[in-house]
Design brief:
Order of helices and strands: HEHEHHEHEHHEHHHHHEHHEE
Shape: globular
CATH topology of the largest domain: Rossmann fold
Structural class: alpha/beta
CATH class of the largest domain: Alpha Beta
Number of domains: 3
Radius of gyration: 22 Å
CATH architecture of the largest domain: 3-Layer(aba) Sandwich
Number of strands: 8
Strand content: 5-15%
């Protein structure tokens, strides 16, 4: 049933980004100085998970590269240190810093590698407001950044570095698609990745409505419907395949979300998975009790309570964990018990 699975991958970029023409033009305008050899504006893209913030930035940069002599780099910042971010930027730009380089040395390597306007995408940047990486990158002439986060106001409120630069940045909030808009996007994916006539327009609209305009969920639901149709021997996607596709898609997204997270998040997820659920106090107690064993063979070290709370919020945002019970003492439980931990941490020492 699926003729080209690449069409349904999260990192697939279509030839045309439907129904994002306005944000594309706004981004191109923010980077207009790159056409004359200068750094573009700083940009903050905010909005809920799955609405296409990363795709928008990558697509627009590909457009800009057709119009201007630029370099660009992509860095996933979740769990990354300033040194990790600088090293990733340097490597993307062709620099080859030594493995034992200090943070200052890494910044110099990046600066030496920037010889023309350069745009760096800082994805999953929710934790960057407290990182000196923003100042380190901002000090490099001809380099500008695209910060991708979920909540613009929360990100700015937590900003400890580069206040002036990001306060004056171009701020774009990306919302969910309308039903017809997302159905158009799904239709383009179906044309590219399914046999002709494999799915009907009204089925695409049902999917778009059911996922409330979240592109990633819609694309993965269409993929799940096609997989179910193939498993059931259907020549085209049926209404029953659509009815049954959503939980399968959510399960696949949760698995992908968990795989994308750094080690600290996996420790917390494993504790909640193995215990069946814990309130905040018990979670901290269990974490402290098993931390030495959990991190024994890992280069990272245990994190403090504030960092744990931030990582717990990421697990919630990724639909891996939910809060249940009274607001004054909620319990945190795993959403999908079919999503097994990638690591096993004993729930008791």
């Amino acid at each position: 049933m699926i003729t080209d699975p690449r069409v349904f991958e999260d990192d697939h970029l279509p030839r045309r980004l439907k129904h994002r023409e306005g944000p594309v033009e706004m981004l191109l305008d923010s980077w207009s100085r790159a056409r004359v050899g200068e750094a573009g504006d700083e940009v903050i893209l905010s909005g809920p998970s799955g609405v296409g913030k990363t795709a928008l930035s990558r697509y627009t940069l590909s457009r800009l590269a057709e119009q201007a002599d630029i370099d660009h780099a992509y860095v996933g910042c979740l769990g990354a240190t300033p040194a990790t971010i600088l090293r990733a930027v340097g490597e993307a730009l062709g620099a080859d810093p030594p493995g034992n380089a200090s943070t200052d040395d890494l910044r110099r390597h990046v600066a030496d590698a920037v010889s023309r306007p350069t745009v760096v995408i800082l994805d999953e940047a929710d934790d960057l407001p407290g990182s000196p990486a923003l100042d380190q990158l901002g000090a490099i002439p001809q380099l500008s950044t695209v910060v991708i986060t979920h909540d613009l106001h929360r990100w700015l409120a937590r900003l400890e570095h580069a206040h002036d630069r990001y306060g004056a940045a171009t701020h774009l909030t990306i919302g969910r698609y309308g039903v017809d808009e997302l159905a158009d996007i799904l239709g383009a994916r179906a044309t590219a990745g399914l046999p002709p006539g494999g799915v009907a327009r009204d089925q695409l609209e049902r999917i778009a409505d059911a996922v409330a305009g979240v592109a990633r969920e819609g694309i993965q639901s269409l993929r799940a419907a096609a997989e179910l149709a193939a498993e059931r021997g259907h020549e085209t996607i049926t209404d029953q395949d659509v009815d049954d596709c959503f939980e399968r898609a959510r399960h696949a997204i949760r698995q992908a979300n968990l795989r994308s997270l750094p080690f600290h998040h996996h420790v917390l997820y494993s504790l909640l998975f193995e215990s069946g659920g814990l309130d905040g106090g018990d979670l901290h107690t269990r974490y402290d009790a098993v931390a030495e064993a959990a991190y024994a063979d890992h280069r990272l070290t245990p994190v403090g309570k504030r960092s744990r709370r931030n990582k717990l919020q990421k697990l919630i945002a990724y639909d891996l964990v939910e809060r249940v019970g009274p607001d004054h003492r909620p319990t945190y439980v795993v959403v999908d018990e079919g999503v097994d931990p990638d690591i096993r941490v004993p729930c008791r020492p």
